Predict the structure.
Amino acid sequence: MTGAPVVRPAGGPDGGGALPPPRAPAPPPEPADPVPEAPAPGARDATPGPTHADEPVAWYDRTRAGGGHPDKAQRQARASQSFWTAAVGVPAVFSVLRLGVEAGGELQTTLLLVANVGPVNLLAGFLTTAARLLSTALVAVFALGAVLGVSVDRLPPGTRRRPLFSRWADLAPTWLVVASFLLALVTWPLLYLPLLIPAFAAAFQLTPAQLHDRVAARVLLVAALLGGYAWLLLPTLLDAARQGELLAFVLLAVPPVLAVGISGPLPGAVIRPLASVTEVVMLATLVWASLPVISTPVLPLTVTTVGPENGPTEDVRGHVVTTDDVNMVILQERGGVRYVPVDQVRAQVLCPSEEELPRHRLRIHDFHVEDSLLEGLGRRVRPVHRIDAACRAVG
């Protein structure tokens, strides 16, 4: 060291000793970057693993606190994109398949139909025939998904693996659910409309407890609702009983009773088996129900009377593809394309298909049970004319 330390005299500050010069204040230390703590020996990674609070509720839920994972809004955006992709792609695929089936699998006939059937006609034909199937699928998914979802929510946290339909129901916006029920309301036959009552109660989790706080008032309200429904359908129920239409009687009478207790939750032991079974059954049902949609013709069925002016005539049953100045092109019902000269066409009538013929003799206030609300209102505006004899004569 270069100098000895200065020792203050015992007399204190006034004892005559020299005081040390004041020191300049030291500059404040510059803030240094925080040094990460070294991981403990044997640790796999310095990054902390997910805690119990950060773990997802279900295996598919990738939303965690703090992080970089898509939240519910992002999942809904992706689900919306997938929905609109399917909404555009499925009608296009079904329309092409319908043309191939209607052409009998023949390439040249398919190309003829593609060249003469416009996309607007294909889309309109698909919507008129597949709207019932689409609404049925959506209503079933939303109803089953809501019941399974509320059942899973009441299970212990470690067992909350939400079924597929429950996830779809959670991601679906309310307007889509309401639109699905409205579409079913106007496209389903009246015979199956009562099924919408328990489905609506299940999708929106409606229970009798929401009607009133008191049990007595709740029972009276439920009894009044069921009584009003029975009074509305009493003539149809009596006709179904007299005619022995057991299935029609059950479809009209039982669904409102099921709506009282269908909202769930289900017992925990049946959730997983029921979810798996309903998904498989739903897929198989959609495949089975889509076959009539694919095989439904996109062109009207007609019977065309052809022949020379003073000679014998022939009835050609089939679908008119196109007509020009020379020929009328008819896709015959039994297969094959026939070119009929336009000067030999004597008459033409529109005929119903076998699927359009009624199978029940029941009516609900002048509406046939096999008609939808749209069809019933249409028949009131333009009543059905009698089927032409040519439609019955041609086999």
User: Anything to note?
Assistant: The two ends are 126 Å apart (CA to CA). The first helix runs from residue 72 to 102.
